[in-house]
Amino acid sequence: FNLTVLISGNGSNLQALIDACASGALPNTKITHVISNRKSAYGLTRARNAAIPTSYHNLIPYKNKHPSTPEGTQLARAEYDADLASLILNSNPRPDIIVCAGWMHILAPTFLNPIAEAGVKVINLHPALPGEFAGANAIQRAYEAFQKGEVKRTGVMIHEVIAEVDAGAAIATQEVELKEGESLDDLETRIHAVEHVLIVEGTYETLEKLKKGE
Ligand code: GRF
């Protein structure tokens, strides 16, 4: 099976997938393309170190073609996303699964529709439980909610990607307890450790579904 991994930053979850393919935890599976929306993403270095082809898909040229109004930005993003889908669907080999691993760009229907029509699955890692803390800075928001006594635990999920942010059907989830007096840094470290396990588990589950033709 072939994976395309989308990243924006450190790439620690990408690294977990690279290691899982090498160790056989993801059998008959390889990462054939890593794409980042940020040129400086360290995950690109991780991919190069693993001899995985990389692409930097830059949003700036799309923004420069449109006025910096809400409508112009929406058009720029729609074109960017359509071209991202083409880049992926025209790559050889074409991926079976696209894994969003620390990918910080909301994917529009101009991406999701052609990808779905091509039968390619898209899954995403989100460091929160289904229905909680959707969007950016989820770990910090859970941390603050804990301080206010609003939650006692948070978690991590791998879910199918739909147009609504972090709202697709959950594939794998893991609760993470919140601890009195713990620093945000320490919580983030504990959560990232769970991410690195769950990203492999969620990808494995998705591959199993593909094998069954689901
Ligand atoms: C993860 O919590 C991810 O959801 C967020 O950044 C953290 C680490 O991502 N976007 P990475 O895989 O180390 O880039």
UniProtKB/TrEMBL annotation:
Keywords: Purine biosynthesis, Transferase
Domain of life of the organism encoding this protein: Eukaryota
Top EC category: transferase
Pfam families: Formyl_trans_N
UniProt signal peptide: none
Pathway annotation: Purine metabolism; IMP biosynthesis via de novo pathway; N(2)-formyl-N(1)-(5-phospho-D-ribosyl)glycinamide from N(1)-(5-phospho-D-ribosyl)glycinamide (10-formyl THF route): step 1/1
CDD domains: FMT_core_GART (cd08645)
InterPro entries: Formyl_transf_N, Formyl_transf_N_sf, GART, GART_AS
Keyword Lyase: no
Assigned EC number: 2.1.2.2
GO biological process, one term: 'de novo' IMP biosynthetic process
PROSITE patterns tied to this protein: GART
Reaction(s) catalysed by this chain's protein: N(1)-(5-phospho-beta-D-ribosyl)glycinamide + (6R)-10-formyltetrahydrofolate = N(2)-formyl-N(1)-(5-phospho-beta-D-ribosyl)glycinamide + (6S)-5,6,7,8-tetrahydrofolate + H(+)
Any one GO molecular-function label of the UniProt entry: phosphoribosylglycinamide formyltransferase activity
Domain Formyl transferase N-terminal: 2-201
Transferase is among the record's keywords: yes
GO cellular-component term (any): cytoplasm
Stored HAMAP family: PurN
Similarity comment: family membership: Belongs to the GART family.
Protein name: Phosphoribosylglycinamide formyltransferase
Native source organism of the sequence: Delitschia confertaspora ATCC 74209
